[in-house]
Amino acid sequence: MSCSLNYNDVLRQIFVDVQAYRAVERRVRNLKFGPISLSLSVVGEPMEAAIMPTIEHAENGAGGGVPIQVTDFEGNEPALVTKLAESFPSDFQQVNLQSGSRMAASWDSLPRFFEMYHAESHAGMMFLSQRSLMPGWEWASPLKRILHWMTVQTPYVVVHGASLQFEDAGLLLVGHSGAGKSTTTARALTEGFISAGDDMLLVDVDGSRPTAHALYDAIKVNAAMARDLSLRGQITWRDVESHGGKKFCKISELAKGSLVSALGLNAILVPQVVDSSASRIVPGVAMDALRVLAPSTMNILRGGEQKTLAKLAKITRSLPTYRLELGSNPVQLVDLLRQFCRDLGT
User: Fold this and answer.
1) Scanning 58, 82, 231, 236, which has its CA 20 to 30 A from the CA of 209?
2) By C-alpha distance, which of 134, 96, 131, 105 is closest to 14?
3) Which are the contacts of 35, defined by CB distance < 8 A and separation ≥ 6?
4) Cβ distance 297 to 315 under 8 Å?
5) Is the dihedral of CA 320, 321, 323, 329 positive or negative?
6) Which residues of 309-330 are buried (b: 16+ CB within 10 A; e: fewer)?
7) 242-255 burial, b for 16+ CB within 10 Å, e for fewer?
8) Helix 79-86 with 8-19: angle, nearest 10 deg
9) Is the dihedral of CA 104, 107, 113, 114 positive or negative?
10) Sign of the C-alpha dihedral, residues 326, 331, 336, 338?
11) In what order do the strands lie in the sheet with 262-264?
């Protein structure tokens, strides 16, 4: 849903009011995701425990990053926020607002979850009033919309995709939910591959070879896959969905040392499950990748669509595309990926 600029004054006032909010418990965490530095101010230990697990890998001691305030109002949200929420149609769960390139915001009515990035002041915020209703996928990839809004005017783009590397050959796996990206990534990680992320990546498109930077130490798989992976050792799983379908864990916990801060990309794989035992990799075209990469990314990350599409198209033009036909034999799949990476490196 797009809203008129009548909301601008209200959004600006919310930005001022929430920044002025003070609580006894507050901790600043300095994070660096590739070229992007954040200074995250977290109000309350429960919020810190919820938001930090998948991004603490990016902590560093340097300050000076873009200030982002994260607040849990525990049901006591500012009156102006309540007024804004009540102005939206009651049958809309999520509303996206934008004022040119100056301000972007998102509101989710169920957990009463609000995010905003104010480009003029280079600052952002995230808050919610009903933490217990927050869907698990938000904790698997927190702040992704703010990171997206921050990078719209830069050579970087947040993409919906997974990454793998073996013997210096980097792969970008793209596809709609359920296509097999995460299952493939999980199997490869347990067999010696490394990754800069499973679901959301920060990609630098301003070079001869795109580079993927890690955002989240998290991987999402279905419940059956989670049970299978748990046989390898003690893994802490969290529900992605309230009905207990998909689950996520830390990549670094699934396979120690497998999460890397960045990796160069050499090819794009578009996975698709097929009715066969054996997997195979066959040449594709750039449009095969863009056709799934653009809608799957832009459906999650609203705002700056023209610039985002241009950067996604540049990625697909820069790298060769292959279709990964996923069979049911996991051992053969990993062997196939290993040999494919070796061939890319020659």
Assistant:
1) 58
2) 105
3) 156, 204, 213
4) no
5) positive
6) bebbbbbbeebebbbbbbbeeb
7) eeeebbbbbbbbbb
8) 150
9) positive
10) positive
11) 156-160, 200-204, 211-214, 262-264
Tell me the three state secondary structure of residue 52: coil
Which pair of tokens denotes residue 144?
């992704």
The angle formed by the CA atoms of residues 38, 311 and 213, to the nearest 5 degrees, is 40
Contact by Cβ (8 Å): 268, 294:
no
| Structural domain boundaries in the chain | 5-134, 157-345
pTM reported for the whole predicted model: 0.92
Whether domain 157-345 has CATH 1.20.920: the reply is no
Residue type for 342, please?
Answer: R
- How many Cβ atoms sit within 10 Å of the Cβ of residue 155? 13
Q: CA-CA distance, 322 to 324, in Å (whole number)?
A: 6
Q: Using one digit for the tens of pLDDT, what is the confidence trace for 32-76? A: 999 999 999 888 788 888 999 999 999 986 777 898 988 887 767
Name the CA dihedral angle for 161, 164, 170, 171, rounded to a multiple of 10 degrees.
Answer: -40
Query: What's the first-to-final CA gap in the chain, in angstroms?
Result: 48
Contact 54, 216 (CB under 8 A): yes
How many residues are given for the chain?
346
DSSP per residue, 250-312: -HHHHSTT-B-SEEE--EEEEEEE-SSSS-EEEE--HHHHHHHHHHHHHTTS-S-HHHHHHHH
Q: How far, rounded to the nearest angstrom, does the alpha carbon of residue 318 sit from its chain's CA centroid?
A: 22
> Which one-letter amino acid corresponds to residue 203?
V
Dihedral sign of CA atoms 48, 54, 56, 62 in order: negative
CA distance 318 to 267: 9
Q: What is the pLDDT of residues 260-317, one digit of tens each?
A: 999 999 999 999 999 999 999 999 999 999 999 999 999 999 999 999 999 999 999 9
Block residue for tokens 């004054």:
9
